[in-house]
Amino acid sequence: MTDEHRKIKLLIKSGYPLIYLVTWEEDRVLHMLSEVSSELKKDLYIWSLTDGMIKGDKPLASTRTPVGALELIQSKDRGIFVLRDFHHYIEEPFITRKLRDLVMEFRNCPRTVLIISPVMKIPVELEKDITVIDIKLPRMDKMNEILSHITDGFSCQGIEISIPHGEGREEFLKSLLGFTGREAEQVLSKIAVMEGRISIEDMDLILREKEQLIRKAGFLEFYSKVESFEHIGGLNQLKLWLKKRALAFTKRAREFGLPEPKGLLLAGVPGCGKSLCAKSIAREWKKPLLHFELGRVLGGLVGESERNMRSALKIAEGVSPAILWIDEIEKAFSGISDGGDSGVTSRLLGTLLTWMEEHENPVFVVATANDINILPEELMRRFDEIFFVDLPFQREREEIFRIHLSKRHRDPRDFNLELLATNTDGFSGAEIEQIIISSLYDTLSDEVPFNTDLILKNTKEIIPLSVSMKEKIDNLREIAMNRFRMASVEPSLPVFSELDLRGIFRKD
Ligand code: ATP
Q: For a pLDDT cut of 90, what percent of the chain falls above it?
């Protein structure tokens, strides 16, 4: 018996009159409700606009309309009544009122109405009377059942099945999370037909199918252009922290007694590699990266934004274990204190905070922010760690020059990196990259040699943000110094052992 099964049974037994089940998996939920109804020895009535109300196999007369269905419910003393796709009608004034009347009448009768729908729509008048349950997508044990069922079927047809036991199977099952039961069956069948086998090697195909699914939903973007730590100059402390947690989502870590990490907030000076780091975590931890633009969930209708937010988070959880990257998080939640948007922002924040606290499937949130002054305290408390990404110091700048010269097919040994770094004190990684690009343009158009002198000349033509926005950046650094962990420490300071630092700083 699943948790949801247990919960719904308890609610019905305790006399809850109106329950809203949010799910895409009508079949699975109807099957569960049929079990609940026999366990509680109650009749099960199922309504849809096409069939009207059905008890067992028997359609009941005059119940094709939503009003007809509610009148039938009113005439019964006991039972479990399931209304499918009722979100289309629930906001009609007559229906809202009728449901409220039913709730009053139900107080002393063993009757429960359950609305099943993929979309949550609840008129304000009913908010206090409805109990909402978000039905989770199938988890590992259910996926295991589905996989066994499908592979047994295909192996009888002579299709080769090569999914190892143990950790390999666990990984394969994890790659299926995020699909509904039916979608998982369809994906596995498609692979069997296309490839003539179902193998651990097919996890890439499953991931591609999942990308489609996420794209269809519209709020999240599957980010495939992930970076590696090798393309990030400096940030030694942050890299170490992340490297130590690379096994965070494994069974081994759980058995070892470690909790799953929840998230990381990267705050700091613009252009110093926060987004770059967020993208690299996915690569280092070998987990999918989902980019969540909070602005996309904002909807015009009442409650729509929260609904969208919940839906996006549910999808992310479905893909778990995954990295959920929220860019410039402060912009989304900056309006909270002035209350200028009728509370939508604070409700969105509430939804995110509750989810971060309670979600069951592993999703690691990486949020980036430039302006930490406007971030709500309660949000900051939800992260495992807050790192401050500052302007790069001398040795980091050398590394950044080396990385970007190599990226553009130049041999860094042909340049005086130390001199370049000395002359770019106060420059961000993004600004260093821009200097190299500008210098390359000079070489291309004016046919001047691309060398240290040319790059030095270009450094003089840029006013870095640390100068043009000195006050703001100084202020940011001052706040951060006392409150957050630094993403970089000069390697001469003995914070971590030499052994730890080996492999992080590349040596020529
Ligand atoms: P913003 O807050 O403005 O989004 P950010 O801190 O997220 O800035 P990124 O977007 O990560 O900065 O940096 C922009 C680009 O600058 C990167 O794509 C990368 O090319 C370069 N860059 C910045 N920092 C570094 C670094 N430490 N190492 C290598 N490249 C860097």
A: 44
Other beta carbons less than 10 A from residue 237's beta carbon: 18
Give 266 Cα–ligand 1 centroid separation in angstroms. 12
Which 3 state secondary structure label does DSSP give 221? strand
Domain boundaries defined on the chain: 3-134, 140-217, 229-388, 394-486
Distance 433 CA to ligand 1 centre (A): 9
Instruction: Say yes or no: CB of residue 276 within 6 Å of ligand 1.
Output: yes
Q: Residue 503 — pLDDT band, cuts 50, 70, 90?
A: very low
CATH T-level assignment (fold) for domain 3-134: Rossmann fold (3.40.50)
Q: Is 138 in the pocket of ligand 1 (CB under 6 A)?
A: no
Residue closest to 303 by CA, chosen among 95, 91, 96, 121: 121
- In this prediction the pTM is 0.73
DSSP 505: B
| Banded model confidence at residue 420, pLDDT cuts 50, 70, 90 | very high
Question: Does ligand 1 lie within 6 Å of residue 9's CB atom?
Answer: no
| CATH node for 229-388 | 3.40.50.300
* pLDDT tens track for 341-370: 557 788 888 888 988 988 877 899 999 998
Q: Angle at the Cα of 333 (from 327 to 338), degrees rounded to 5?
A: 155
Q: Comparing 3-134 with 394-486, is the CATH topology the same?
A: no
Ligand 1 in contact with 273 (CB < 6 A)? yes
Amino acid at 501: L
Atom 9 of ligand 1: nearest residue by CA position = 273
- Hey, CA dihedral for 93, 95, 98, 102, is it positive or negative? negative
Q: Which of 71, 81, 21, 75 is nearest to 46 (CA)?
A: 81
- Per residue in 157-215, pLDDT (tens digit) is 888 888 878 778 888 888 888 888 888 999 999 998 888 888 888 888 888 888 787 77
CATH architecture of 140-217: Orthogonal Bundle (1.10)
How far, in Å, from the CA of 6 to the mean position of ligand 1?
48
CATH, domain range 394-486: 1.10.8
Q: Can you give the three-state secondary structure of 159-181, one letter per residue?
A: CEEECCCCHHHHHHHHHHECECH
Exposure letters 417-451 (e unless 16+ CB within 10 A, then b): beebbebbeebbbbbbbbbbebbbebeeeeeeebe
